[in-house]
Amino acid sequence: IARDRDLASVVEALKDLPPGRVYAGLSDDWQKQVDLVPFNSVRIPDVLNFEGLPRMAKPYASLSLDADLAFSFAPADRGMWDLFNVRYAVARAGQAVPAFLVPLRQVGQYTIYGAPTSGWTAFASAYVTRTAATDRDLFYALLETIATDRTANGLFTRYTYPAAVTSPETGAKVAVCFAGRRLAYERMQTDRFDALLGCDGGDSLVILKVTYHPNWRVTVDDQPVRTFMVSPGFIGFELPRGMHFVTARYTSTPLKTPLLVVGLAAAIALAVFRRRLVRPPWTW
To answer: What is this structure's pTM?
Structure first.
């Protein structure tokens, strides 16, 4: 890896580009062409993860409810690149890639491509509602929502999870403002998102393409709004008619710091106790 100076330059180039997820292989055929060392032990997605770059790749562990959706990512499906905001791809020079990818930069033996996406947000044209009682039920429900016919038409599902029971999609489709949607500005950072956006024709349902978690707090014109999970496991919120300034921030759970302090104190106490147990009997 240290000898691959081209890859180091690729990483630096990606860090300088506007934030977006990066794809460097998911299927075996693509991955084998961008492996770094023999025996398939290290791949470019591993390096991207190490460098803290957002990526579309097989998860190391399914820590989020929608993580395993990455296994269903289809590189030839242009709609999936937009749905997950996979903005860039990395491939070896001369490697076959989907036709809609546009070369952005040649870096030695690699090429960085750009994919056409709508950015970190999406507007729903309509939505249906659904409930899920378990994480397994939720995952398979989310899996159904990444079909091309749904994503291309702006149809999303609004979830109640966890619910008392699992139910199929219920009720009629709820139409929301879509034709007059506008995005004037957006900026994504590690734990914060800002945007100026809205829809001229009425109230809208906006999807932030980040895995839903209740610790994400969304404000519209500095006023807090309720968030909920929408397909495929992203953050959803309602937006009144017209243009508004939206901010989303991730705030850590308040208990984390006290628990960390307690954990460190317990570890120190255990270390001292064990040291006393193993010291020679002639020491006092």
So the answer is: 0.85
